[in-house]
TrEMBL record, chain A:
It is found in: Cell membrane. It comes from the Bacteria. Belongs to the binding-protein-dependent transport system permease family. CysTW subfamily. One of its GO terms (biological process) is transmembrane transport. Pfam families: BPD_transp_1. This is Spermidine/putrescine transport system permease protein. Gene3D superfamilies: MetI-like. Keywords: Cell membrane, Membrane, Transmembrane, Transmembrane helix, Transport. The lineage of its organism: Bacteria, Pseudomonadati, Pseudomonadota, Gammaproteobacteria, Pseudomonadales.
UniProtKB/TrEMBL annotation, chain B:
The chain crosses the membrane at residues 71-91, 103-125, 153-172, 204-225, 256-274. Belongs to the binding-protein-dependent transport system permease family. CysTW subfamily. It is found in: Cell membrane. Residues 66-273 form the ABC transmembrane type-1 domain. One of its GO terms (biological process) is transmembrane transport. Keywords: Cell membrane, Membrane, Transmembrane, Transmembrane helix, Transport. One of its GO terms (cellular component) is plasma membrane. It comes from Marinobacter pelagius. Its main location: membrane. This is Spermidine/putrescine transport system permease protein.
Length: 285, 286
């Protein structure tokens, strides 16, 4: 079934139909979600009642509160942004260090440590969240009970969410950055050293610029994954609810087109971020 | 670089790695294991015991959900592989130039939206007042509203949708590197489509198949949103029970035991998958 092997016409037709059906299946849920963000009806379903921007702009006076006046969702959006920022910083920093560690240095037990590094990928997200909750929150409880010390950082909240997400996003960042470091021509670095640069200078002027596209890629990926994460986050979140958890709570109460409005905003935001990251890595490739 | 500078840089790089792995992965999981064996006797005394694990085996609700979650995850993974393989084949081997890039991109796009958004999209389509129901009525194929949400089929549709990307990408990557001469040789030696697929293509694509299956299985087993939002009353998912123990009942000991069981199940199946296919974790993940 490669190009050079003859295929029958009905097989080709069937294959094409399958491809079309597949891409319709992929596109359908997101398309309807986006379209119903603009339906002038209080419930995201047919019939189509006309186009409106109420679900973004309405200020609550007509019985509708649009996204830009919905304080709960806006503050959740801000919480998610802060979390995603710190997760990105932490994961990318760890990713760079780990990439150099595993690609450049030789030491005993490297194979074993590499497997440990991959471990977070084969642990379900819920379990990552639960284990961190049990350890850190349990520690805070014990400290409070036994010695009266309040370790509020380790109570469910933003710090724990960041820690939980870094746990697995750092592995992904490491894989992305290490893949690029593997393709680096070490003679470039040796040339810099021969020309009198110290190892640190050589790293910052030769190796790091080479890694930059992968660092941007890893950062965009880390930001997106953090922003969208639910399974780990829901176990660790405190009173300051991130967006996915706030949306989930809202959805359980019943759906309104405001949810579609948020969903569309998220899709556009992540698409822009992804396109930016892809554009950057293409320029530098 | 002399030896002591080498040692210094090794330790400088090793320290963040060890802090991350030890403080965020190893120690929390060991603590979870420890807590799962603790039995609360009164508000501040604990004893060692197996009570939580006994609960799991005696209360049929727990282990039934456990088995159900495992079986449905395996089925979803298999289904995702079946659906994704022809697509990956087309993108890797049949499409050319721009079409190839565009089709690959089209597979990526839905995953820039979060799982919650994707699930929500399916809810709008499948529920009683949803689009499919309206369309069926408009076409005259149904007399009244049809409820297509809140059953196992809906859950599987959603789970497969969530897993597709993680299956398509590794498959395309491995199939892309395949030498077409191998396939031609297979046909020249008298193989039909099926034997060529079985003897040439599948063995070649094995690392991609295993890596896709592992990721999809892990995602499905650990998913929470899709089964909760799209499943009905009888379609409980194991992650939901863990959540209930921790967040609603504050029974951390029981929740930790259920967490350990889920972790054991997922590790066991990933290990079996690697063993049966003769792959290593490093090869399929790294």
């Amino acid at each position: 079934m490669i190009r050079s092997v003859p295929r029958s016409r009905w097989f080709d037709g069937l294959y094409l139909a399958y491809l079309v059906a597949f891409f319709v299946y992929l596109a359908l849920p997101l398309t309807v979600t986006a379209v119903f963000a603009f339906n002038d009806a209080p419930f995201p379903s047919l019939p189509w009642k006309g186009f409106t921007l109420d679900w973004y702009l309405a200020d609550g006076s007509g019985g509708r509160t649009g996204l830009f006046h919905d304080d709960t969702l806006l503050s959740a959006l801000w919480v998610s942004t802060k979390i995603a920022f710190w997760v990105t910083v932490g994961s990318v920093a760890l990713g760079c260090v780990n990439a150099v560690l595993f690609e450049r240095l030789e030491f005993r037990g490297k194979e074993f440590l590499y497997l440990l590094m991959l471990l977070p990928l084969v642990i379900p997200g819920v379990i990552l969240g639960v284990s961190i909750l049990v350890f850190y929150s349990g520690m805070a409880n014990d400290a409070s009970r036994l010695w009266g010390i309040e370790l509020d950082v380790f109570r469910p909240g933003m710090t724990l969410v960041v820690m939980g997400q870094v746990t697995f996003i750092a592995t992904l960042a490491t894989l992305v950055i290490a893949a690029r470091l593997r393709k680096f021509d070490r003679q470039l670095e040796e040339a810099a050293l021969n020309l009198g640069a110290t190892p640190v200078v050589a790293w910052f002027t030769v190796t790091l610029p080479w890694l930059m596209p992968s660092i941007f890629g890893a950062a965009a990926m880390a930001f997106l994954m953090s922003f969208e994460n639910f399974n780990t986050t829901v176990m660790l979140t405190g009173s300051d609810t991130p967006l996915t958890v706030a949306l989930f709570n809202r959805l359980r109460e019943g759906s309104t087109p405001v949810l579609n409005a948020v969903a569309l905003l998220l899709m556009v935001g992540s698409a822009l971020l992804a396109v930016m990251a892809m554009g950057r890595s293409r320029d530098n490739a | 670089m002399n030896a002591s500078a080498g040692r210094l840089s090794l330790w400088l790089l090793l320290t963040p790695f060890l802090l991350w792995i030890v403080l965020l992965v190893l120690v929390p999981h060991l603590q979870m294991l420890r807590v799962s064996f603790q039995v609360r006797e009164s508000w501040d005394t604990l004893a060692w015991g197996l009570e939580q694990y006994q609960n799991f085996f005696t209360e049929s609700y727990y282990w039934r959900t456990f088995v159900r979650t495992g079986v449905m995850s395996l089925f979803t993974t298999f289904l995702t592989l079946l659906i994704a393989f022809p697509i990956a084949w087309y993108i890797a081997r049949l499409a050319r130039g721009r079409a190839k890039g565009l089709l690959f991109l089209a597979c990526l796009v839905p995953f820039w939206a979060s799982e919650l958004v994707r699930t929500y999209g399916w809810m709008i389509l499948l529920r009683e007042s949803g689009l499919f129901s309206s369309w069926l009525q408009a076409l005259g194929w149904a007399d009244g509203p049809v409820e297509m949400l809140y059953n196992d089929v809906a859950v599987i549709i959603g789970l497969v949708y969530n897993g597709l990307l993680f299956m398509v990408v590794p498959l395309v990557t491995t199939l892309d590197g395949m030498d077409e001469n191998l396939v031609e040789a297979g046909y020249d030696l008298g193989g039909n489509h099926l034997t060529v697929l079985r003897e040439v293509v599948v063995p070649w694509a094995m690392p991609g198949i295993v890596s896709g299956c592992i990721v999809v299985f892990m995602l499905t087993l650990g998913s929470y949103l899709t089964p909760i939002l799209m499943g009905g009353k009888d379609s409980a998912w194991f992650t939901e029970q863990i959540f209930t123990q921790f967040i609603t009942r504050f029974n951390w000991e029981q929740g930790a035991a259920l967490g350990v069981l889920l972790l054991v199940l997922s590790s066991l199946i990933v290990w079996l998958g690697l063993k049966l296919s003769g792959q290593s974790l490093r090869k399929v993940m790294g």
